[in-house]
Each structure stands twice: as C-alpha cells, then as structure tokens.
Design brief:
- The protein is α/β, with parallel strands linked by helices and 165 residues long.
- It has one domain: Purple Acid Phosphatase, chain A, domain 2 (4-Layer Sandwich).
- It is 20% helix and 31% strand.
- It contains three helices and eleven strands; from the N terminus they run βαββαβββαβββββ.
- The longest helix has 13 residues.
- It is globular.
Length: 165
C-alpha cells in the first residue's frame, strides 16, 4: 500500500493542495497528516480521499477540526492513531508529547511510527520500528512530504516547491 504522509501544514492551503496532488500523482492510496493542520479548510485537499490525521500543538480549536473532518470524511484520531494499513501496524502522533512519541517507538509494537512537530525530515530505525517524519510544508527550508510503500518498505521524500501564498 502506498501511504502519503504530511505534517505541519500550518494553514498553508495552496502548498498543501500541491502536496496532496503530488502524492496522488505517485499513486498514494491513503493519506496521513501528522498534525498542525491549524484550520479546518486545510483538510479540504484530503476530502473524498482515504485519509486520517492527529492533532498537533498548534491545532487549538480541536472541536472545529474534528467536526469538519467528520463532515468531509477524514478520520480524526485526536492525539494518537493506532492504525493497521497495508498489513503493517502504524502509530501516528504529532511529536510534541515527547514521552508519547518515545513510548510508541520503544514499545516494539509498531512497524512504523509517524510524527511531525520538528519540521525536519526523519527516517530512522529503532529495533523493528521505522520512525518517519515527512518534514513540513511551513517553516522548513525545504518543504517536503513522504511516500511510503508498505509492501517494499521504500520511502521517498517529495520536495514541494513553495509559491507566494
């Protein structure tokens, strides 16, 4: 299964739309947003797609985000998602709760742990667990998202070129 992974979009609507289109062009089948959506309209590019997200530390109006997500068919998992996709176990958290992130990594329960928060790409292994941060579409020198093939374990970071927004 091809997973499109995003994080830290921070109300950057145009670049988020371009990122989702880039992932769709690469045949992403499911989209995971690792938090810091910030406003409900940022979920619009994911509407009608198989998608889920978790809250980040800048997602202040969580009720509005959760309600809007439900209305556009995007699954909201509060601050932690425990998913089974493509035959793999996946934990998703924003990363601002360092203890929660480290617990997921160290538990050995997950094939993958996805997070954001640092605005820095990450691809590391901790035992059987692969830890992935797709980077960010805001406040990052290079704006990136990630595409993961759970069948082959191949990971690719896609650079999304910024424009004036």
């Amino acid at each position: 299964m091809l997973l499109g992974i995003l994080s830290d979009t921070h109300d950057r609507y145009a670049i988020t739309g371009r990122a989702v289109r880039a992932l769709l062009a690469r045949k992403a089948e499911f989209f995971i947003h690792c938090g810091d959506v910030t406003t409900p309209r940022l979920l619009d590019p994911l509407a009608g797609l198989r998608a889920a997200f978790v809250f980040g530390n800048c997602d202040w109006d969580r009720q509005a985000l959760a309600s809007y997500a439900e209305s556009v068919g995007v699954a909201c998992h509060a601050t932690f998602a425990d998913l089974e996709l493509g035959g793999k176990s996946i934990a998703v958290t924003h990363g601002d709760d360092h203890g929660k992130l480290e617990d997921a990594i160290e538990s050995g329960r997950y094939d993958y742990v996805f997070h954001g928060h640092t605005h820095v790409r990450r691809d590391q292994r901790a035992g059987r667990t692969r830890v992935i941060n797709p980077g960010a579409l805001h406040r990052a020198t290079t704006k990136t998202v990630a595409l993961l093939d759970t069948d082959t374990d191949a990971l690719e970071f896609l650079t999304i070129e910024p424009t004036s927004e």
